[in-house]
Input
Amino acid sequence: MPPAPRVAVVDDDVSIRHAMLNLLRAAGFSASAFADAESFLGSKRRRGISCLVADVRMPGMTGLELYEALAASDEPIPTILVTAHDDEATRLRARKAGVHCYLGKPFSPEELCECIRSALAGRSTPTS
Output
């Protein structure tokens, strides 16, 4: 049996981080959590991450800036951005940058898991 895909969650809200970790593990993914983009970028655990779920608004580097930094460094990771502060400009910028999915909070567990599965399979998914 192959190992479970590794998903990283980057969110500054500890309750959201824990809820997503529990959800992803219950769905059969291996999951790690980080409080901010800088912690993720500085972690050795980022190697082998199959998919990234990041909050758009965080202190310091935003989730979109994190995705752009990974893409620019030739280490792209399929990324799902989540936000409680949805706005069209950020959604458009995410789409143009190549973010796999863009989900407004609240979203259903099924929506998140489907975005992750489609990212892992390399399927094209609209950024919602």
Remarks:
- Residues 14-26 form the longest helix (13 residues).
- The chain has a mean pLDDT of 92.
- The chain has one domain: 8-121.
- The chain is about 40% helix and 20% strand.
